[in-house]
Amino acid sequence: METNIWIVDNIVDKQSIYPQVKEAAQLLKSGEVVAFPTETVYGLGANAKDAKAVEKIFAAKGRPSDNPLIVHIAHLKQLEEMVSAIPDVAHTLIKRFWPGPLTLVLPKKEGVISDPVTAGLPTVAVRMPAHPVALALIEASGLPLAAPSANISGRPSPTTAAHVFADLNGRIAGIVDGGETGIGVESTVLDCTTKVPTILRPGGVTKEALEKVIGNVFVDSALTDERQTPKSPGMKYTHYAPKSPMAIVQGSPAFLQTLVNKQRTLGKKVGVLTTEENRSFYDADVVLACGSRHDLHTVASHLYDTLRKFDETDVDFIYSESFPTEGIGEAIMNRLKKAAGHQVIDEK
Ligand code: AMP
Ligand code: MG
């Protein structure tokens, strides 16, 4: 299959992106899958009401069919159409955080969204993305778009159109290239069907920010205890991983360097994932800095690109520094731990 590429600039006005977006929307309407930028990562979209179209997403990504997709909408009317109830707490969150990187899990209305989207669950996960190209595409297609991240399953999520191209060229109908995404980690998934809303996946909207608006929020216990089964089916899979094995190091840069030295005496090529502050400290085969510790948002936005950059090197093993689990750091550490298959080395 030939993959069309439409280059749109996300800072130009809606009118000037319309012709390209319209072409992409046409393909979506005819049941094809198209990748598009959002403020978190690139999504791989298909008509959420068309089971055959949605199945193409699973096929292109190699995604397990028991991992449900997030439905992306541009209007609240679309939400009302697909859920059977919107609790007060969801209304409050929508007012404050939509459009934005917050996905709400709500009870689904039967017969609207196609079955493979929700993987047999009685709920549906919905969000309104805060990206002009994503919104324009949803509007032009007139459809709710089921869209997971536009990567091959298990690989780091794409934050540029080039990442999408590297994974999915020839496997999908098109890519709308709107430049680099901003936030860099996926949306927060919040279950609003429990008495106290529960975070199923940490992401772009922090727990602290949610609690400021709605008070107490729970975190799915499986996020801190690997032995439990997560309520968000996708969280049980290994994810976001570079090709070489990786371990997260909790300790000083000096301690991390001793681990590097040990591997190198065994003849291994070693990579280090660090930040601007510590870049020059390390002596390793490849040292990549991912943003600055002074602003963890810069780490989030460069995380997946940095993990992918290691794949262009010949390192046998990667050691990554760790980050404080506050604010966006919670999502960063969640993705890093998954990328490392939960291998954590503690100095103490
Ligand atoms: P991705 O599309 O790659 O960003 O992944 C979407 C995430 O949302 C996965 O972790 C899914 O398991 C989760 N998800 C989607 N729908 C639901 C749902 N109805 N209930 C719980 N989790 C969901
Ligand atoms: Mg994904």
UniProtKB/TrEMBL annotation:
It is found in: Cytoplasm. Keywords: ATP-binding, Cytoplasm, Nucleotide-binding, Nucleotidyltransferase, Transferase, tRNA processing. Transmembrane segments: none annotated. The keyword Cell inner membrane does not apply. It catalyses: L-threonine + hydrogencarbonate + ATP = L-threonylcarbamoyladenylate + diphosphate + H2O. One of its GO terms (cellular component) is cytoplasm. Its main location: cytoplasm. L-threonine binds at residues 40, 72, 127, 147, 187. GO terms for molecular function: ATP binding; double-stranded RNA binding; L-threonylcarbamoyladenylate synthase; tRNA binding. PROSITE patterns: YRDC. ATP binds at residues 63, 67, 123, 149, 157, 201, 240. The keyword Cytoplasm applies. GO terms for biological process: regulation of translational fidelity; tRNA processing. Its EC number is 2.7.7.87. Residues 18-205 form the YrdC-like domain. Belongs to the SUA5 family. Required for the formation of a threonylcarbamoyl group on adenosine at position 37 (t(6)A37) in tRNAs that read codons beginning with adenine. This is Threonylcarbamoyl-AMP synthase. The lineage of its organism: Bacteria, Bacillati, Bacillota, Bacilli, Bacillales.
